[in-house]
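WARN no homologs supplied; continuing
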Amino acid sequence: MSGRAQLMWDEAVTGYDFGPDHPMDPVRLALTRRLVDAFGLDRDVDVVAAKPAGESTLRLVHREDYVEAVKAASADPGAADGSYGIGTLDDPAFAGMHEVSALIAGQSVGAAEAVWRGDALHAVNFAGGLHHAMPGSASGFCIYNDASLAIARLLELGAERVAYIDVDVHHGDGVQAAFWDDPRVLTVSLHEHPRTLFPQTGWPEETGGPNAEGSAVNVALPAGTGDAGWVRAFHAVVPELIADFRPQVLVTQHGADTHFEDPLAHLAVSLDAQRAVQVACHDLAHEYAGGRWVALGGGGYAVVEVVPRSWTHLVAIAAGRPIEPQTVIPEGWRQEVFARTRQLAPARMTDGRWPVAFSGWESGYDPADRLDQAVLAARKAVYPLRGLLP
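OK structure emitted
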């Protein structure tokens, strides 16, 4: 197995563009790629452009009629069929939509193939993580569910246990739905509580289908949760489940929209806490999955201040050259940010909250604390189904 990481990148993924007034601004991808390059990380990863996902690959997860509807809207956006979730405010149709969505999906599938076959130990596709797309419809800015397609491809290649960890502020509903009744896939989602955020799913009682009870795990966090609570919740639930499941591959989704500056949600997490959880995912892959790690992007709508720094940390961790939080950001990148966006770029790779302090679950819990109530609800719903003590 190659010890080097792969960075999946094709400049054409920046064509995933719902229009000038949409929060999913593709400049976040371009600026992340430039920041990765500004830190010289290209020397530590193999930059690979995988081919777009083909028809047979897309149909591992998506219905044929839905793929045809996306292709039709891609060719004629004005004729988009809203019954498939296309042509809506969240998911406007645009020319070339099928092609660029399939390209992003292809990068995640290519990452999964590289890790499974041993061409790379880790692989990152920060353009991916489009976790809301359903088998038969677009949803939440997501056309094709690249995360589900990557997992489905791993199963097709012979994987018997794949774990998926989703730390986006929104519930990873599309991935949960795709593998709801498949015991080979463990899906774990930490997200803002469905009472206060789209897609209004991800309740702790959602634990998997009749053939896979305990294979879906949902930690629904109260709005306002900050660094200490967010990292505490992760460590109170995720490592024990991964240790029990022993996945052959770990797939993780790192939406940056948990950040306190994100305009679309209500958690209060810093860049430093996001980095801490990225490190934790990397360590879990090495401890329980032979190091096999596929890391994806996701949401994130503070497109200058947060997303590029968060995902550059992710690439650096995968590359084996983590960036110290206090590191000064190269001036050339900051100038490019201003030239492209007329926004001032951040100066360092930190929000000034490193190291992130939190209290471990093993030290006890407070049944009156809302964060601890969320953790307890998840543990009580799932742990007994997996033979674990809640």
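The CA atoms of residues 22 and 90 lie 8 Å apart.
OK
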